[in-house]
Write a structure and sequence with these properties.
Structural class: alpha/beta
Number of helices: 12
Shape: elongated
Radius of gyration: 24 Å
Bound molecules: pyridoxal-5'-phosphate
Oligomer: single chain
Strand order of the largest sheet: 2-3-4-5-6-7-8-9
Strand content: 15-25%
Largest sheet: 8 strands, parallel, barrel
Number of strands: 19
Helix content: 25-40%
């Protein structure tokens, strides 16, 4: 086994789902987004784990991701959140995926695909209430719902929208999220007034689940919090002060490697490409076999620290594709082959989580975990 691995603590996913349920009415359904290979954790294992806890359905981005889950034997509903190209429609039908739709042309293409296969496709109508990404303008929701309703092989299984700033505590952002929600409610009511059943109403992503329990409607789509990270401004501290004292998410991924070599250098010795770091005194450098080819991005540069036996040590010099160097100082007691945690849950002895790396690098935890790529084996714990 290679030294560099991502341990996926499935018990922490189960814990996080329990924590999410604190915010939900018993009848509210949960949809877990497992796009981008389960936010880098392994979509199939994550899906199987959450479905066993009573989660209702899954969401992916690409049709190919839905196919992977079906091939693994998963039978729960699977929403495809991004818009596939027409060539992917046969797979949507064959793998019984539930696409989001928002325009007449695409609804017609899906209806044709359903006819060809002589099978029913369930769709959810996506409304753009202010995200400006995909979704129909609010005034088109009723005509599109009517169109879907008139097509015998299409079934309107739900209506949804997506928030742009539900993870922000800025007052104008809070007002914006409320406005998006109000627009969505009005549209859903307008569809109902036409005598059309809108199916499941859903809009809440992680931020909204934690901030706006009144927006949970029939189902929530909670991604990031399932994997153990806090969205945007909504930190653990904020939640424990305002909502729930005991509330705590647990990061699911632990990115670990081992020291493959230690060498002593003298003051003035430079390290790695570009000679960007020079030892200012005699020191010991450890080499770890993980680099940007594993998803430890080069731009983390001198901002990255790793944990070895419960102590923090800085990565020095440029991060290479397959390796990087850690400054141990003298007399660290650290030995060749010792384990190194790049990030992980606290209980595993890691001092840093993907959240810390994100905070130190002006990005979001989503990007840190999605960056861990295919070369790193996922090892599922429990
Ligand atoms: C990714 C995604 C989500 C989940 O967002 P989180 O912030 O991870 O909870 C929900 N809805 C849509 C449409 C998405 O694309």
């Amino acid at each position: 086994m290679r030294a560099t691995n991502a341990f996926i603590h499935l018990d922490n996913i189960r814990h996080n789902i329990e924590q999410i349920r604190i915010f939900l009415k018993p009848e509210t359904k949960i949809c877990v987004p497992v796009k981008a290979d389960g936010y880098g954790h392994g979509a199939v294992e994550v899906s199987k784990t959450v479905l066993k806890t009573g989660v209702y359905c899954l969401a992916v981005s690409a049709v190919s991701e839905g196919k992977e889950l079906r091939d693994a034997g998963i039978t729960a509903p699977i929403l495809t959140l991004s818009l596939p190209v027409p060539e992917e429609i046969p797979d949507i039908v064959n793998y019984k995926l539930t696409p989001l739709v928002f325009d007449a042309e695409y609804i017609k293409l899906l209806a044709d695909g359903a006819k060809q296969a002589n099978s029913v496709i369930t769709v959810h109508l996506k409304i753009d209430t202010g995200m400006g990404r995909i979704g129909c303008p609010i005034e088109q929701a009723v005509p599109l719902a009517r169109q879907i309703n008139s097509l015998p092989l299409l079934k309107l299984g739900g209506m949804c929208t997506h928030f742009a700033v539900s993870d922000s505590l800025a007052p104008n952002d809070i007002a914006y999220t409320r406005l998006q929600f109000k627009r969505f409610r009005l549209v859903a009511d307008a569809v109902k007034k036409q005598g059309i059943r809108p199916g499941l109403l859903h809009c809440a992503n992680s931020g909204a689940v934690l901030m706006y329990p009144e927006m949970q409607l029939d189902m929530v789509r909670s991604g990031l919090i399932t994997y153990g990270y806090y969205p945007g401004d909504i930190t653990q501290q904020f939640l424990s002060e305002t909502v729930h004292k005991e509330f705590a998410l647990r990061p699911v991924m632990e990115f670990k490697t081992r020291i493959v070599s230690i060498h002593r250098v003298q003051a003035g010795y430079n390290v790695s490409y570009g000679r960007t770091w020079t030892a200012d005194k005699e020191t010991e450098l450890a080499v770890i076999p993980a680099g940007y080819g594993d998803g430890i991005l080069r731009r983390y540069g001198h901002n990255l620290k790793v944990s070895i036996k419960g102590k923090a040590y800085p990565v020095v010099g440029r991060i290479c594709m397959d390796q990087c160097m850690v400054d141990l100082g003298l007399n660290s007691g650290v030995k060749r082959w010792d384990e190194v945690s790049v990030f992980g849950p606290k209980e595993t002895g890691s001092l840093f989580s993907a959240q810390d790396i994100a905070d130190n690098n002006n990005t979001i935890p989503y990007e840190i975990i999605c960056a861990i790529n295919k070369r790193v084996p996922r090892i599922f714990v429990k």
